[in-house]
Design a protein that fits this description.
Pfam families: Acetyltransf_1
CATH superfamily: Gcn5-related N-acetyltransferase (GNAT)
GO molecular function: acyltransferase activity, transferring groups other than amino-acyl groups
InterPro entries: Acyl_CoA_acyltransferase, GNAT_dom
Helix content: 25-40%
Number of strands: 7
CATH architecture: 3-Layer(aba) Sandwich
CATH class: Alpha Beta
Number of helices: 4
Protein name: GNAT family N-acetyltransferase
Keywords: Transferase
Shape: globular
Largest sheet: 7 strands, mixed
Strand order of the largest sheet: 1-2-3-4-5-7-6
Length: 146
């Protein structure tokens, strides 16, 4: 297993995966995108989307079916959480499906009052889009780096 940041050439593969599962496409403009490799094959992907200078959204975590059960999602999220610290971000939001709440709590994500005035409007828009788009319930979680 290895994990690395995506290059422009690999972005095509990333967006093909996201298109297959109904996720929004990625760009390298304001995103850190990670690919996890297993046995020299692309096995999964995740991203950290900068909302502003101090905040980002962690999302797009997807492991291909044949590579599941190898803790690769854990590796992707760990990598991106460390990247968020390295970038000096103060807050990282995540909008997971409800059944993944316990997984994200392992990394320090927690539920919070979404009516708080400090919540970035882009993340609220995305959260409402997810609620309307997906058949499963989603949560809005937050990780703070102090």
């Amino acid at each position: 297993m290895s994990i690395k940041r995506v290059t422009p050439t690999e972005l095509v593969w990333v967006n093909q995966q996201y298109e297959r599962i109904g996720f929004q496409p990625s760009t390298l403009d304001h995103e850190v995108i990670a690919i996890v490799m297993s046995q020299d094959h692309f096995a999964g992907v995740g991203r950290l989307v900068k909302l502003n200078e101090h905040e980002a959204e962690l999302g797009g975590i997807y492991i291909l079916d044949k590579f599941r059960g190898q803790s690769l999602a854990h590796e992707v999220v760990s990598f991106l959480v460390e990247e968020s610290k390295r970038l000096g971000l103060k807050t990282v939001y995540c909008i997971p499906f409800e059944e993944l709440q316990h997984f994200y709590k392992k990394f320090g994500f927690h539920e919070f009052d979404i009516s708080a005035p400090a919540v970035d409007s882009k993340i609220l828009t995305k959260y409402h889009w997810c609620l309307e788009t997906y058949d499963k319930n989603v949560l809005l979680l937050k990780l703070s780096h102090d």
